[in-house]
Amino acid sequence: MDLNVAITGRRAVREYTAQAVDELSIHALIDAAVQAPSAVNQQPWTFTVVREQSMLDQISREAEFHVLANMPPNLQSDHFRSRLTDPGFLIFYHAPVLISISAGAQGPWIVEDGALAAENLMLAAHAAGLGTCWTGFAQSFLNTSNGKNMLGIPPAWVPVAPIIVGYPKAPPPPAPRNEPQIRWVG
Ligand SMILES: Cc1cc2nc3c(=O)[nH]c(=O)nc-3n(C[C@H](O)[C@H](O)[C@H](O)COP(=O)(O)O)c2cc1C
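^ Those are the sequences you sent over. The predicted structure of the assembly is below.
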């Protein structure tokens, strides 16, 4: 797929078919992720793949409780609260796969490195006909000791980017973009 087509065509996918994603395809996404640049080429990323639906639903529920219990009271949280308390809502949208990118090393740029790997992964997924969504709602829970236990990762690792993956039910409509603010200063 042409790079520009991939960049402009990728969307956050929130409805998935039940079709499983095979292991080779998951490997291909991770191979794309690790081509990302990283500070001093540290490559701090690690990938935890969850495919068991009951486990995905359990993490999703625990993450919902965690977000609701720790949400500061403000206008935006009212919107999130009503979404998270909707009985039909699941943070992972019943996607068949979670690829949680975590930093397995310390350093000042581990979050940036993980995010760059995540974008590569999401673009490669789109080019392969797969959908993805970064599920920020899961992040704070995955960073607790309980969350890390559920992922089976060491306490020192830092979950940075939980990306759900699966086959989209339908192509989502494009999310609007603002005009970029550009200042030419020299
Ligand atoms: C850091 C981050 C966290 C996100 N968290 C969520 C989330 O928890 N749930 C969700 O449905 N989408 C989440 N998204 C997806 C954004 O809502 C989506 O990228 C944005 O609305 C733009 O739409 P597009 O990706 O289709 O262009 C997240 C995206 C990023 C980059």
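The chain has a mean pLDDT of 96. Strands lie at 45-50, 97-103, 131-134, 158-166.

Shout if you want it in another format.
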